[in-house]
Amino acid sequence: MTRSDELYARACKVLPGGVNSPVRAMRSIGRDPLFIAKAHGCEIVDVDGAAYIDYVCSWGPMILGHADRDVVEAIEGATELGTSYGAPTEVEVQLAEAIADRVPSIEMVRMTSSGTEAGMSVLRLARAATGRDKILKFAGAYHGHSDSLLVDAGSGLATLAVPGSPGVTTGSSKDTIVVPWNDRDALIAACTEHEFAALIAEPCPANMGLVPPADGFLELLREQADANGALLIFDEVISGFRVARGGYQQLAGVTPDLTMLGKIVGGGLPAAAYAGRRELMEMISPAGDVYQAGTLSGNPLAMTAGLATLGKLDDQAYSVLALRTHDLANGLAAAAADAGVEVSIVSECGLLTIFFASSAPTDYEAAKACDLETHAAWCRALLERGVYAPPSQFEAWFPSLVHDDAVIERTLEAARGAFEAVGR
Ligand code: KE4
Questions:
Q1: Could you tell me if residue 81 is inside a domain?
Q2: Host domain of residue 28
Q3: Structure confidence by residue, pLDDT tens digits, 94-124
Q4: What is the CA angle 246-388-364, rounded to 5?
Q5: What CATH code is carried by the domain that includes residue 109?
Q6: Domain for residue 218, yes or no?
Q7: The overall pTM is greater than 0.70
């Protein structure tokens, strides 16, 4: 029995499923989780001393790699001054200014401690701003686990949602309409039938695997929101500050009314945000009467880590990350082809998904039809060869700026072996 196994057995006695967030349990790749002891750069080391090239990178925050010297020193310095005051600080103003400087659609920011908190709050704001109750989301998109967003599509096209989890009431789900991603007709039908407070979307969904918008789809989303009198919310918790300095909205040239941010914005510490135009954000208490609060919102350590991280993400950084991601995606495709394994690889700067399917999914139904069993076997084989890939077909790989050419070559060597193992 390894030390990780021992810890997992102990953990299962005191933590549901032995973890504090489900995907970490590695159940969808058919094995027990690895308990991690430390990480540095692109590498994580488990409690038994085994090292892996990490492509989870805390599910996105670690774009500079683990334990970046500058970020660690900034946090150490901040820690000396105390860890939480429950009072305003200069550093939270600096981070809000840095966010607004990078994302033209953002004039004001409210910090939260998680993306889920940002999601539930931004919907409350949209409902207050429009006086409407209904929201539209897309099947396969994940915006955190607040009740009105933890829903599944019902039957039919533009469908009234059903609870996506026990404990979510029909009262919470009844105001959510779910339509298939990239489905123009379903979107138009839903916007014709309902008056929405908001249309919420990951502009480049990464929670069904990476499934970019079809040409013109985000523009249609903007048009439909305007015609409907709804607010357009982009959930950039993953894509924000990863795919471009100004997020996916910069790449797409489509401007949302409100934006959710997270992950990178906290530099690996708990922080997220919702943000947008001044006239909307000033509706938030205490400037306005839409209530939202948080003991650790704007925590000085998290703000410091986020500011130090953004400070190193200049144009050159995105050029390097885009090139590295491209090389990794091409190398993985070649490795799969050489082994005769059928995959479709989708990538954006800093993000990629290897779909075990003959063509890249354009929506959640197609993503669910991938060969999940072979994907799971491949991930297990990668782990055996020292590469720690996201343990789910419905996630993305998060390469960092320290996944350099040598690391990518080591990754591709492991991938070739893993493809051969599953290809037999
Ligand atoms: P958190 O509440 O986990 O901070 O953020 C929720 C969230 C919101 N929006 C998007 C687009 C997200 O991807 C997330 C959370 N992402 C997952 C991974 N895809 C976090 C990993 C986990 O749940 O453990």
A1: no
A2: 1-49
A3: 999 999 999 999 999 999 999 999 999 999 9
A4: 60
A5: 3.40.640.10
A6: yes
A7: yes
